[in-house]
Design goal:
alpha+beta; seven-stranded mixed beta sheet; three-stranded antiparallel beta sheet; 10 strands
Length: about 180
């Protein structure tokens, strides 16, 4: 291992939730804080690990806190787990990505963490979004949000992220794969 690979960084567990309005546009927040300050991202947050909060419980809480929508576990579909090493050089992340089956009736009010917007999928490609979202999260959402995908991303500073696909379970059928570079 190199000294860089051996660097001890904090490890955080979080959720991202992909929500749409009745027109099928995606809800994003323009973040005022790190990580991803100044970028548009799906809503989400960190698990309260001291309380033993599960990823589903976290997603339900974050949806309520950030956009005021009441959902249950049945309203959520876990479609991806992403492990990011050395994200922004400041920490490692394990993220659980959910697609919410319930639509959002309107644009939420701005909050301390940022302001919201609804965007078509084509508009999102032209927004300021994190590089790993552009390379991995949105392509996974586009192609697998009704199935399941596990990815890992090495975001070590000084190089482009290296994204590896670890497992796919397609909608309607199981199809596991050996770890391989993504996309392919």
């Amino acid at each position: 291992m190199t000294a860089e690979q051996n660097t001890v960084l904090p490890f955080k567990i979080s959720v991202l939730v992909f929500l749409q309005n009745h027109e099928g546009k995606e809800l994003l927040i323009c973040r005022r804080k790190s990580p991803n300050q100044g970028c548009w991202s799906p809503i989400g947050g960190k698990l309260i690990m001291s309380l033993g909060e599960s990823p589903y419980e976290c997603a339900i809480r974050e949806i309520d806190e950030e956009v005021g929508l009441s959902v249950t576990q049945a309203d959520l579909h876990l479609f991806s787990i992403v492990s990011e090493k050395a994200y922004e050089g400041s920490g490692h992340w394990l993220m659980f990505l959910y697609k919410c089956r319930k639509t959002l009736p309107g644009l939420p009010d701005a909050m301390e963490e940022g302001h919201f917007g609804f965007f078509s999928r084509e508009q999102i490609d032209r927004l300021a979004i994190p590089e790993t979202d552009r390379l991995a999260l949105w392509p996974v959402y586009d192609d697998h949000s009704d199935g399941f995908v596990a990815l890992r991303a090495d975001c070590s500073p000084g190089r482009s992220p290296v994204i590896t696909l670890e497992e796919i379970i397609s909608s309607g059928r199981d199809a596991s794969v050996q770890a391989r570079p993504f996309p392919k």
